[in-house]
TrEMBL record:
Entry's transmembrane regions: 7-23, 81-101, 113-132, 167-186, 198-217, 267-284, 290-307, 328-345
Record bears the keyword Membrane: yes
Higher taxonomy: Bacteria, Pseudomonadati, Pseudomonadota, Alphaproteobacteria, Acetobacterales
The name this protein goes by in its record: DUF2029 domain-containing protein
Keyword Transmembrane helix: yes
Keywords from the named record: Membrane, Transmembrane, Transmembrane helix
Amino acid sequence: MPLRSKTLFYSLGYLILSLLLFSREPDVLLHAQFWGEDGWFWFPDAYHYGISSLYLPHTGYLQTDDRIVAFSSLLLPLRDIPTLFAVMAFFFQWLPCAFLLSPRCKNLFPSTIFRFFIATLVCLIPNSWEVYVNLTNSQWHLAFLALLIVCSAPPRSIADKLFDISFLILSGLSGPFCLFLLPVAFLRTAIERSSTNITRFCIVMSTAIIQCTTILLTGERTHMLPNLGASPSKFTQILGGPLFLSPVIGRDHIKQLELLHSWQTGWLPWGITLVGLLLCLYAFQKISALRLPLIFATIVLTAGLTHPAGSSTTAWDAFLVPNTGMRYFYIPLCIWIITLATLTFKGSIPIRFTSGLILFCALSFGFRRDWHYPKENDRGFTERANYFDTALLGTIVTLPIRPGTFVTITK
């Protein structure tokens, strides 16, 4: 394909991915509001502490991407700050999809059409409302991007090198994921020893040391472990439901399955879990491009199941509630759906048939049902923000925060 045609193709592909991502809930960008920690911590900390907020840990570790955006937002009036947050969150979420499509991942998936296909699947992944275009959860998208960078081909230009270094550092200092990525980067370097892989490993290791030090110094007093309420039956319900089945039938429809006798007796979630694990094991053994992503997904899922954020109920019970804790499944979900797509075109005939059937059901039901997210009602943020911008120093203003909460800020 001529260079000009390639450039046009990729530009069109990137545009399509951005439009698909935008279509899931346009109001999140068009009528932006703070989400969770965006309004509880990132903006208030930047507003009150200024540049020193950049190195404040949260829940035991650094979250640099949120802090940088929040500090930069101080140049804007309050009414426009959620829009900046949403635009940056959209960009961070779009980046892994665009990187998947790009030639940088050609060593993993040689077919450009297939890369566009799986990038589209990631854009439209079901059961991902909690991580959709909000700055707080952008660390999950950056972690996925960091995984792709570690697994990708060596950069061919200075711009690509700067991109890799910048986003490995940013991801490494935004959440604890560099600790999970470290063994993957080590294995990548051990498998293919090159200056590129050594550099990537050193970056991941450096950020892991920084985050580990921060966690050891502050984590014990800022992050209490919840009661898990773990059991074998809940384990299979979690893997069989929110992970393996949610992209197939849609997250909210799993509650209907839970009314079935076969689900309540346990054999249905056990069966779904067994099929999912066997397909992943087959992919791990037969498809080299999926080995490191599957290892990373396993580490992330294990960490999420054993060390989730605190909850008013037992953590594993909360995972079974729709739209609760779904961020812990986002990266495993992406790897699972990429695994299904890959196995549909590779492997033995029974594996292709099984994976293809599951993927067909996912595209027919799960992706269609979860394409659009529920619209957040306007709770008067713009009016309150305009009041804050014109108020006198010392004025106390209460701002609405998605989903369904408030924050009080003193000017």
